[in-house]
Amino acid sequence: MASGSKRGRIRGVCAPVLAAALAAAGCSASEPDPDVTLRVLAGSEIADMEPLLEEAAERTGVAVELEYTGTLDGMARIAAGDREGETGEYDAVWFASNRYLTLDEGGRSAVHVQTPVMVSPVVLGVAADRAEELGWDDGGEVTWADVHRAVAEEGFTYGMTNPGASNSGFSALIGVASAMADTGAALRSEDVEQVGPELSEFFSGQEVTAGSSGWLTEAFVRRAERGRPVDGLVNYESVILSLNASGALEEPLTVVYPADGVVTADYPLTLLSDPSEEALDGYERLVEDLTSVRTQQQIADRTRRRPVTAGAEPSPALPPLVELPFPTSREVVDGLVSDYSAALRRPARTVYVLDVSGSMEGDRLRELQSALSALTGTDGGSLTGSTQSFQEREEVTLLPFSTEPADPLTFVMEPGSAEEAGAELAEAVAGLEAEGDTAAYDALVRAYGLLEEGLTGPGDDRLMSVVLMTDGEVNRGTGLAGFGDSLSARPDAVAGVPVFTVLFGESDVPEMGELAELTGGRVFDAREEDLEQVFREIRGYQ
Amino acid sequence: MRVGSFRVGGPEGNDMVRRTDGSAVLNVPVGRFDGGLFVAQDGEDQPDATGPDGEVREQTSVESARWDDIAAGFEPALTVDPRGRHPRRQGRAGGASAPARVPRSATGRPPPGRLGAGSPWQRGSPTGRFRGGSAQVRGIPHTSGRGAFWFVVVASVVAVALAAALGFVVLNRLAGGDPVLVEGVVGSEKVELFEDELVVERFAELGYEVRVRPRGSRLMAEEADGADFVSPGSGPASEHVRELHGISTEYRLFSTPMVLLSYRPMVGALEAAGVAEQAGDGTWSFDLAAYLELTRERTRWRDLPGDAVGSSNRNEVLVRTTDPRTSNSAAMHVAVLSYLLNGEEVVAPGGVDGELTGTLSRLFLAQGQPPESSQQPFEQFRDLGPGHTPLLWAYESQYVDAMVNGPELDQEAVVLYPGPTVYAVHTAVPFTEEGDAVGRLLARDPVLQERAAAHGFRTEGGAHFDDLVAEHGLPVRTRVADVVNTPTYEALETLLTGIEDAYDSSGARPPAPEEAARGGGA
C-alpha cells in the first residue's frame, strides 16, 4: 500500500463498541434501548403518527422528539438556517410537504436526504345531501371549476385552512389557482393575475378558516351539530376519510376528487444537512421501519393516508389521481398567498377585547402593546409573517376593558391607506393604560353588540371573530352564563362568532376553555409562550 | 475465563493460518455471513503469488468463516445475537440494509445436517481468487494438522466470550489488514452501486474501503475537495472534471442509455398520436421530434386521440425530468432535445441562441418544481402512478435495476427508447494513486463489473447485461441504434446556464398588463 494512505475506520469504530460491551457486562441486552433520539420539527399533521412512532421506537431504538410548528413558518426558519429547538438543534423536519422548503436554495441546501413516508392529496369532502343536489355523488367528473360554479350559482360554502398558516390550505390554493388558470403547465405570475377575479369568487364560498387542518375539521363538525352547517370541507383525503369513519357526522361526507387535479402531500421525513453519525444512523433505522410493509399497512389503516411501499394497500381502495404541477418559482407562490390574504379571501373582521385592569400594569401591558403593534408591521419579509399582519380590507376593533368596557376604536385597512390605519392602530395601542377591575363578560357582550351594529347587510360575508385576552379571573359584572344568554338574542351571523381566548397571567383556565367551547373558538396559551407568537398564531384562524 | 476452543477445518487445499497478526469476531450480518463473521489474518499464505511484473512474492490473506457455525459447534452452543451495532451502517440514507434478524441459535447441538452445510470458508486474497469449499466445523478442540488450522481460545477468550454473551463486536488488531480508505464524489445514481454489499465486500477483499458522497453532475468538478476520485455520469461532465483538475486519466466504467418510462394507457394514446411505436421485438420507440411537435402546440393528455387516457388529465404532455440546473439526467435531456432543435446537429459552443434556450427552458419550467434527485421522480413514478407522473425521463439502469432487484414497477409500466437517445457514460477520473487504483478496478475487475451489470448498467462487451435482460425477460433493447453524441462541456454548459437564467427570472410579475394578457389559455 502507498505510504501515507488513509486507513479505514474499523479500529476507530470498534474500540468504543468494545468499551460499551465491557461497560454493559452483566446487563441484559434483550431489548435495545432507545439509544438515538431524533429532534424533529414537525407540522401538526404529523401528530397522529405519535403512537406509531412510539411503537417504531421500541423496534428500532430510535426515539423521536417532535416539536410542532406551522408548515410555512417552520420551513422559513429552516431555510434561513435557524435550527434551534427547545432541547437542542433539530436533526430533521417532518412536514406534510417540502415543496415550499425546496423552492429556494437556502431550503434545498438545508436538506441532507428526504424520504416520503405516506401520501394524501388535498381534496373536497361534501355533505351528502349537498353532493346529491349538485350531482357530485355519482362518481362523475367534478372539477375545481365546477366547485367555483357551485359557489357562484348555488351558494356553496366550505371550510379551508389559511394558506399562510397550514399546508392543506396552501396546497388547495395552489391547486385551485392552477386548475383555474388551466394552462396545463406550472403556474406563472401572469396566470395568477389573470385568474384573480375567478379566485376571488371561488374564495367567497370559504365560510370557515383555520390555522390547522385538525381544528378546521372540529369546526366543521361543530357547525353541523349546531345547525349552521357548511357544505364542504377542503382538507387532506386522510382527514376526511378519518372523519367519516369516526361517526362524528350523521352522514359521511362524499369525497370529491377534482378531476383537473390535486396537490398531494407526501410527508417526507427529512434529515437536515451535516447530520451527526448518530442522527444519520437513527434516521436510516427509522426510515427503514417506517417504509416497511408492516408499518406502511398500519399507517394506511390508522391514519388513512396512502402507503408508499408496494405490498401495503390503502383501506379501502382509493382512486388514482392527477397531480397538478407545482409552481417553479417562490415568487409565484409568495405572490399568490399574499394575493389570497389581501385581495382574494373574504376580509376579516375582528374585535380584540383587551384586559387593561390594574393587574396588567407594567410588563404585562407592555407585552400586550408590543404584541399588537407587531401585527401592524410588515415582518421582515417572510411569507407567514406578512400574512399574519393586518391585511388590506380588514376591520380591526380594539375594545379595552377593566371595570367596564372602554370606548371601542375601529380601524379599517382600506387598500391604499392600510399603512396609515395600521400606524393609527399602533398609536392607540401605545396609549393604553391599566387600572380597575376585570369585567370581561360585560366587555364580550359589548363586543358582540359592536359586531351586530357593524353588519353592513345580509350580503356581509366578512369572517368575524373575537379575541379575548385577560390575565385574571373575571371579578366584576356579568358571568359566563349571562354572556351565553346574551347570544340568543343576536342574529345567527353574530351569535356564531368564535371567541379565541388567550391565557395570560392568572387566567381562569377552565372557564376560558368553556367560553371557547361555547362559542366554537379555541384556547391559546400565552403563559409559557410569547404573547406576540400567540397573537400571530391566532391570525391563522381569523 | 476459558469458554472453549475450536478448530476450523479446510480439507480442500486450504493451508494453515500461520503467523497470524490477529483474529476477530463480528456478530452482525456481513454480506452473506448473516449470522456473524469470524476472520483471521494469515501471515503466510501459500502458494506464493506471482505479480504482474513477474516477481514472486509471499502472500498474506484474510480467512473467514460463519460465526454462527462456529458458535453452534460449542457444547452447549454459544448464543449469537446479531442485533448489535452494525459497523457499516454509516453511509448515506437508504444504504446498507438492516441487520438481518437471525434467530439466536438454539442451545444444545445443532442438527448434524447443519454442520458442513453451505460453505463456511471464504477466502479473499489480494489477487482476488476464491478457493476453499465445504470445510467442516467441529465443536471439539483439535490439534493442528495438515489441511486444517485451529485456534485455542485462551488469551482472547474473555473478549470472545463477551462477544458471544453480549452480542457486541470485538475486534483484535488486524495488522496489515486495514483497508485503504478511498473517497469518491459520484453521481447520485451510482450511490446504490457503491453501497451494494457485494461491492463493499469485493473492495474489502481487494484491500479498499470506498466511501462516496453524491453530488449533482454540474458541481461535481467544483465540489470534489479531498476526494480520491470523481465519477460523473456523462462525457461532458467527465471532460470538465479533467480540464478543471488538469488530469488526463479517465476510466470508462459502464454506460446506460436514457429512456422514457410511461404507463400502458399513456403509451396507447401516444401511439395513436404517432409518437410511440412498438417494434417487432415488443420494445417501444418514442419519436422525440414528434413529441416536440406536440409540445409546440401545448397538447394536453386529454387532447390525445383515443379515450384510453381518459378525459380528466388536463396537464400538458410533458416529459418529467430532474432539475437541469444540477442533475446529469436532465442535462442528457437537454443534449438530445438540443440536437433536434438544432436541425439534427450536435450543438456547437458558438451555436447557442436565445430561441434555442427559450424553447428548452419552457420544456423544463412548464413541468413545475423540479425534483431534487434522479431517484425522487423515479420513486414517484413507481409509487404514485400515471396520474402523478405519466411520462418520465430516466436512466435505463434505473428501470432494469428496479425490475431485477425490486421494488418492481407496476405491470402497466412501459419503457420506451427515445429516438434519438444518448448514452450516459459513467467514468472515473482519479485524483490520487488510490483513486486511480479504484477507478481501474471499477473498470476492469470482473466482479465489480458484474455488480454494475446487476444494477442495470451496460458494461464492456455487454454480455452481463444481455444475460440479465434475457434471464428476466425484460422488454429492453440490447442494442440501441438511434444514438447521438453529447455536446462538448462548453456547449452543454452554455445551454444549461441559459435554462438556469430562465428559472431565476421566472417568478417576476410581468411589467405591463399587455404582457399578462398573453398568459393563460394556450
Key phrases:
heterodimer; A: 542 residues; D-Maltodextrin-Binding Protein, domain 2; 6-stranded mixed beta sheet; globular; disordered N terminus; B: 522 residues; 9-stranded mixed beta sheet; 5-stranded antiparallel beta sheet
Topology:
The complex is a heterodimer of chains A (542) and B (522).
Chain A: H1 10-23, E1 36-43, H2 50-60, E2 62-69, H3 71-79, E3 92-94, H4 105-109, E4 111-116, E5 118-126, H5 128-134, H6 144-154, E6 158-159, H7 167-181, H8 189-203, E7 206-208, H9 213-225, E8 232-236, H10 237-246, E9 254-256, E10 264-265, E11 268-272, H11 277-290, H12 293-303, E12 306-307, H13 330-344, E13 348-355, H14 363-374, H15 383-388, E14 395-401, E15 409-412, H16 418-430, H17 440-453, E16 463-470, H18 480-487, H19 492-495, E17 499-503, H20 509-519, E18 522-525, H21 531-539
Parallel strand pairs in A: 1-2, 1-3, 6-7, 6-8, 13-14, 13-16, 16-17, 17-18
Antiparallel strand pairs in A: 3-11, 4-11, 5-8, 5-9, 5-10, 5-12, 14-15
Helix pairs in contact in A: 2-11, 6-8, 7-8, 7-13, 8-13, 14-16, 14-21, 17-18
Chain B: E1 6-9, E2 23-26, E3 37-50, E4 56-66, H1 67-73, E5 122-124, E6 137-138, E7 148-151, H2 157-166, E8 170-171, E9 180-186, H3 191-195, H4 197-205, E10 208-214, E11 229-231, H5 235-245, E12 251-263, H6 264-272, E13 276-278, E14 284-287, H7 288-296, H8 328-341, H9 354-365, H10 375-384, E15 391-395, H11 396-405, E16 413-419, E17 423-430, H12 433-444, H13 446-454, H14 463-472, H15 489-505, H16 513-517
Parallel strand pairs in B: 9-10, 9-11, 14-16
Antiparallel strand pairs in B: 1-6, 1-7, 2-3, 2-8, 3-4, 4-5, 11-17, 12-15, 12-16, 12-17, 13-14
Helix pairs in contact in B: 9-15
